């Protein structure tokens, strides 16, 4: 009798030849052996498919799907549909994981009865990643409201907003028809996690860094393009607000959600070309506040002094050279 598959690892791949061998090796060497690896080559034009087939020939737990390019959401959904494991997890092809990650998250779910378990990550940049200090490595349960508050306000090693670095009970995903929105090509992880957390009402938190997130690579399926960034944020905010309102938690997480909107405004401004920065920043701020007037009521969380000063000037409607110069200084120093 074949051993039961405990975890299905879903691995969407798009032009990831530079990192793919390291990623696959980290998955194949997991201490939890009863796993399957569902790799979806999403129309790669490099040697990714060849690398996948080479690993599949050496490890019978790997299944390779080769499909035309359709985006990360479509690839992940295909993986979910073909998953045979009790649990599923998602790994980006340019990231890698600790050899104990699947075993740690699996045990956390089994011991606590949670449908979702989450660990922290290493925020891999050229300068390295911060090692977090924990008072305890004991598993704990985090409520949906606390999860959402952290999701909308935290970045870096404890970031809640990634579909990766988590384990999900497959039956739970199927019961609630939890899938990635294939119409979205931006921040689809955030919508998926929001829906999952609300349906589950809590997650199990494993206070360890077990996932390596490769910040430097911009070719990953999960990285959005710069085209129509404002429109993408509008779609994102609308979907998230609907989910929060329907579930009845919007008022409890409203300030955190407004912080998330403020972060979006900073990103949008950051991508404006410097040749026309003064006028374009003024127009974009006015347009953003017209659509999201509640943003002026936000109590900012986890912000540096320059960002706080910039927001204060915006609240004062001081959209002139002074606020522009402060923003340009923000941009120059890569604070956003």
List the helices and strands and how they pair.
Layout: E1 7-13, H1 20-28, E2 35-42, H2 48-58, E3 62-67, H3 72-82, E4 87-90, E5 96-97, H4 101-112, E6 116-124, E7 140-143, H5 144-153, E8 166-169, H6 170-175, H7 188-200, E9 202-214, H8 229-247, H9 250-270, H10 277-291, H11 305-315, H12 321-332
Parallel strand pairs: 1-2, 1-4, 2-3, 6-9
Antiparallel strand pairs: 4-8, 5-9, 6-8, 7-9
Helix pairs in contact: 5-7, 5-9, 7-8, 8-9, 10-12, 11-12
How would you describe the overall organization of this protein?
This protein has 336 residues and is an alpha/beta fold. Helices cover 45% and strands 17% of the residues. The protein is built from twelve helices and nine strands. It has helices at residues 20-28, 48-58, 72-82, 101-112, 144-153, 170-175, 188-200, 229-247, 250-270, 277-291, 305-315, 321-332; strands at 7-13, 35-42, 62-67, 87-90, 96-97, 116-124, 140-143, 166-169, 202-214. Strands 1, 2, 3, 4, 5, 6, 7, 8 and 9 form a nine-stranded mixed beta sheet that branches. α2 links the parallel β2 and β3 (62-67). α10 (277-291) packs across α12. It is globular and about 65 Å long. The protein starts with 6 loop residues before the first strand and ends with a helix.
């Amino acid at each position: 009798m074949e051993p039961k598959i405990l975890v299905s690892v879903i691995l969407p791949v798009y032009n990831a030849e530079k990192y793919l061998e390291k990623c696959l090796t980290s998955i194949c060497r997991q201490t939890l052996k009863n796993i399957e690896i569902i790799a979806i080559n999403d129309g790669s034009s490099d040697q990714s498919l060849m690398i996948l087939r080479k690993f599949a020939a050496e490890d019978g737990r790997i299944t390779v799907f080769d499909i035309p390019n359709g985006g990360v959401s479509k690839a992940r959904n295909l993986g979910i549909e073909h998953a045979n494991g009790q649990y599923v997890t998602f790994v980006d092809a340019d990231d890698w994981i600790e050899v104990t990650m699947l075993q740690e998250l699996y045990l956390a779910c089994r011991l606590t009865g949670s449908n979702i378990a989450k660990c922290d990550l290493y925020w891999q940049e050229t300068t390295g990643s911060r090692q977090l200090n924990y008072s305890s490595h004991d598993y704990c349960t985090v409520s949906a409201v606390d999860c959402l508050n952290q999701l909308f306000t935290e970045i870096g090693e404890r970031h809640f907003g990634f579909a990766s670095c988590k384990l999900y009970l497959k039956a739970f995903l199927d019961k609630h028809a939890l899938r990635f929105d294939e119409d979205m090509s931006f921040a689809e992880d955030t919508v998926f996690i929001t829906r999952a957390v609300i349906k589950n009402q809590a997650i199990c938190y494993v206070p360890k860094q077990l996932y390596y997130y490769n910040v430097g690579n911009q070719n990953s399926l999960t990285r959005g393009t710069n085209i129509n960034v404002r429109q993408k944020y509008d779609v994102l905010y609308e979907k998230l607000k609907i989910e929060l309102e329907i579930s009845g938690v919007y008022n409890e997480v409203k300030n955190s959600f407004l912080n998330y909107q403020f972060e979006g405004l900073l990103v949008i401004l950051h991508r404006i070309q410097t040749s026309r920065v003064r006028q374009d920043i003024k127009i974009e701020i006015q347009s953003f506040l017209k659509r999201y007037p509640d943003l002026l009521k936000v109590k900012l969380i986890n912000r540096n002094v320059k960002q706080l000063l910039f927001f204060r000037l915006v609240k004062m409607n001081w959209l002139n050279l002074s606020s522009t110069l402060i923003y340009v200084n923000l941009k120059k120093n890569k604070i956003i």
